[in-house]
Amino acid sequence: MVSEVDRRHVRRCVELAAEALEAGDEPFGSVLVAEDGTVLREDRNRVAGGDHTRHPEFELARWAAGNLAPEQRAAATVYTSGEHCPMCAAAHGWVGLGRIVYATSSEQLGSWLAELGVPAPAVRALPIREVVPGAEVEGPVPEFVEQVRDLHRRFRA
Ligand SMILES: [Zn+2]
């Protein structure tokens, strides 16, 4: 179940994705929220400099590993504008983070990019659960899908 609180955090992820776009980066944004609802960390995509591992979900996982106890990580939720790529899903799983809520799926992104004629990426997209079988995952969240799609269209325009 995606709650009103979840929607608020997903909305922030979409805002961060828009900030990434404004900064000339691919539009992705993520937020890490503690069990008590505290926003611990947020980030946006930062691959424009040439380091294509600078995804927000990866940064949040590494921050969590350095700053949270294992039980805090397991109780935290990662919100994100786009479903984790396999690298970020693996980091999430290795670090032992909890629930994931994404606005749009990798499958949706793949079909949008194909429509726009963007060549397939170097790393194949996989559903999070194929990388982390035990992950608790929710998404897409329909009310944000068009907005995220529009950000990707604008990035490729
Ligand atoms: Zn990623």
Automatic annotation (TrEMBL):
Superkingdom: Bacteria
Residue spans crossing the bilayer: none
EC number annotated for this UniProt entry: 3.5.4.33
The UniProt record lists the keyword Ligase: no
Pfam families given in the database record: dCMP_cyt_deam_1 (PF00383)
MF terms (GO), sorted A to Z: tRNA-specific adenosine-34 deaminase activity
Keyword Cytoplasm belongs to the record: no
Record-annotated CMP/dCMP-type deaminase domain positions: 4-120
Gene3D superfamilies, alphabetized: Cytidine Deaminase, domain 2
Alphabetically ordered keywords of this record: Hydrolase
PANTHER family to which the protein is assigned, alphabetical: CYTOSINE DEAMINASE FAMILY MEMBER, TRNA(ADENINE(34)) DEAMINASE, CHLOROPLASTIC
Protein name (record): Nucleoside deaminase
Organism: Saccharopolyspora griseoalba
